[in-house]
Write a structure and sequence with these properties.
about 600 residues; alpha+beta; eight-stranded mixed β-sheet; 25 strands
Length: about 600
């Protein structure tokens, strides 16, 4: 039998209580740096220097030029729950500062050797205090505060054993600095490791400063492949940078989201972003973004996690819907013209462009006709091509156009389209086109699939959501909590085309579903919708099922490989890509076209 030790209830010694608190706040050197940076920013710092030795285990020094700490408050700053950020419960409900609990410094001091030096802004003298002492000493220090952390976890060796290598710990620390620096463009940051300069970020202002900071942290490639957005509605404002689908990544390592300047990781926000990019990314890919949300502090609760990485929204459904719609609206503005950087767009004569009447005849989408059929009616199959006259050349892999692009540029009078004009068809799969920057390669099936999908979607939305009553209602076992939720959200289920009644304690009866989904797994659909309601406050399951069905229809109804296109048909397809929403990706997230610039071709052939 296991021996147990019982004793009377007692108060823990302050040093033990502080070390327990430190276990929640101080996970590794990176979390120490995060807390110190937040204190510097709350002190209105304009420049922050971070010195690190041995990944933060030997030394962490954070110096700022902020407002400083009053000499009489230096001792108090190292006491638990001592803070200058809040005074009462009302302040706690409207937290606007990054720190507010008064736990960071005492927790850090309990597991390290800490020195705090500060000079109040406007004062002539600076003072320093050792973490374990009570006596202040005069010091030479500019206006602002320096916190030095020596020998982190020196008195808790068990914690040191769980730390990784110096390189790994420094990588985590660098990531923390990147996150903070992206949220405060107006502050300069300097990072040194083992006395070696690592990164210097200059303070910036306005859109240009934001772009420089983003490029410095995430790289020029991200800065060149992103959209700047700014939306405001219902007391919410979302702005920042959303990466184009072509800038997607294999890992979600470039996703930065801030709420009122605080970097957070939140499932609701991540879900809204995934939904916004749903139809644009290839499977397994992740979007990249740097986004900032401004919201009334009373509409969020920031006191829900020890490290303040999470927030709770008082109206999560509204926030989710706003984020998803804002991102979708921004991404919907992408067209080849915005994705191909141009300086001065040359022009070509009107008489050398595709005839407008011929273009309209090729691309017209008649909703009364069979869906997914427009180009196909004009494309001869392989057999008819082979039976053409003997004098007609048969190109098995390459159909060549006589179009002379260079001559058109010289005679320029009207704008050249972003995707240029078709030159040839390769292996019945790709269209080769020439634009002002070089060569455009188009996957004609991927491109036509997106065009067909968007037209089907527009036709469906125009006709409205059709519902179908089930001849035999379907019984769905969902559990008591989900059944309660179904009754509570019955009106919202009806908006999605779902009519359900409660049959038992944990059983629902489905009587009506969206017509297009009547042949699908209705029970699974209802369960997924209710699961989303419980998790995010909103559900996109019905729209996801619709989109998947339309994607399948578009895929099977689009032009296939080995189908020969005439020059007019190829150019008509190029023009449609340019005006189709999300035309640069097929419905599975694959690119529909790519640009090979002349410089790219020169490198391939070692020219210049």
């Amino acid at each position: 039998m296991r021996e147990t030790h019982q004793c009377r209830i007692h108060l823990l010694p302050p040093e033990i209580a502080n070390q327990i608190a430190a276990g929640e706040v101080v996970e590794r050197p990176a979390s120490v740096v995060k807390e110190l940076l937040e204190n510097s920013l709350d002190a209105d710092a304009h420049a922050i220097e971070i010195d690190i030795e041995e990944g933060g285990l030997r030394l962490i020094r954070v110096r700022d030029d902020g407002s400083g700490i009053h000499p009489d408050d230096l001792r108090l700053a190292l006491e638990r729950h001592a803070t200058s950020k809040i005074l009462n419960f009302t302040d706690l409900e409207r937290v606007t500062s990054l720190g507010f609990r008064g736990e960071a410094l005492p927790s850090i001091a309990s597991v390290s050797r800490l020195r705090l030096t500060s000079r109040l802004r406007g004062n002539a003298d600076a003072w320093t205090l050792e973490g374990g002492g009570q006596q202040l000493a005069p010091a030479a220090h500019p206006e602002g505060t320096t916190v030095e952390i020596h020998d982190l976890f020196h008195n808790t060796p068990a914690r040191r054993k769980f730390l990784k290598s110096v390189r790994t710990e420094f990588d985590h620390l660098e990531e923390i600095i990147r996150r903070v620096a992206l949220s405060h463009i107006e502050v300069a940051f300097t990072l040194r490791h083992n006395r070696r300069p690592i990164q210097t970020l200059l303070a910036g202002q306005g859109p240009e400063g934001e772009l420089r900071r983003v490029a410095a942290i995430l790289g020029e490639n991200f800065a060149a492949a992103m959209l700047r957005l700014d939306f405001e509605a219902g007391g919410l404002r979302l702005w920042g940078f959303a990466g184009l689908p072509t800038a997607s990544r294999s890992q979600p390592d470039q996703q930065y989201f801030y709420v009122n300047g605080r970097v957070i990781r939140d499932r609701l926000i991540a879900h809204a972003a995934r939904q916004a990019y749903e139809e644009l990314l290839y499977q397994g890919r992740h979007p990249a973004y740097v986004l900032y949300l401004a919201i009334d502090p009373e509409r969020i609760d920031v006191n829900v996690h020890p490290t303040k990485h999470e927030v709770r929204f008082r109206d999560s459904r509204t926030v989710h819907e706003f984020l998803m719609r804002a991102l979708r609206q921004a991404l919907a503005t992408t067209r080849p013209a915005t994705e191909i950087t141009t300086a001065v767009m040359p022009t070509v004569p009107t008489r050398n462009r595709v005839d407008r009447d011929e273009y309209e005849k090729v691309v017209d989408f008649d909703q009364e006709k069979e869906p997914c059929v427009d180009y196909l009616r004009r494309i001869p199959d392989d057999e008819s091509t082979r039976n053409q006259g003997k004098d007609t050349p048969s190109f098995q892999t390459l159909s060549v156009s006589p179009f002379n692009f260079s001559r058109q540029v010289e005679e320029a009078t009207t704008p050249i389209p972003p995707l240029g004009y078709a030159l040839a068809q390769l292996h019945g799969i790709y269209i080769l086109a020439e634009n002002i920057h070089g060569l455009i390669l188009v996957d004609m099936h991927a491109a036509h699939e997106r065009i067909t999908y968007e037209r089907l979607k527009a036709a469906l939305l125009g006709a409205g959501l059709r519902r179908q009553s089930l001849l035999m209602p379907i019984t769905v076992e969902v559990g008591e909590q989900a059944a309660d939720l179904a009754v509570e959200r019955a009106a919202e289920l009806a908006e999605l085309g779902l009519e359900v009644d409660r049959l038992g304690q944990g059983t629902l009866l489905a009587r009506q579903v969206p017509a297009l989904l009547a042949q699908g797994d209705v029970a699974a659909l209802i369960k997924d919708v209710l699961a989303d309601f419980a998790e995010y406050g909103v559900s996109t399951q019905v729209s996801e099922h619709f989109n998947h069905l339309l994607s399948t229809l578009a895929c099977h109804g689009s032009v296939r490989a080995q189908r020969r296109l005439s020059l007019s048909e190829m150019n008509a397809l190029l023009r449609d890509i340019e005006v189709t929403q999300h035309g640069s990706q097929c419905t599975h997230g694959r690119p529909s076209w790519i640009q090979l610039r002349l410089a790219d071709l020169d490198r391939l052939f070692l020219r210049g």
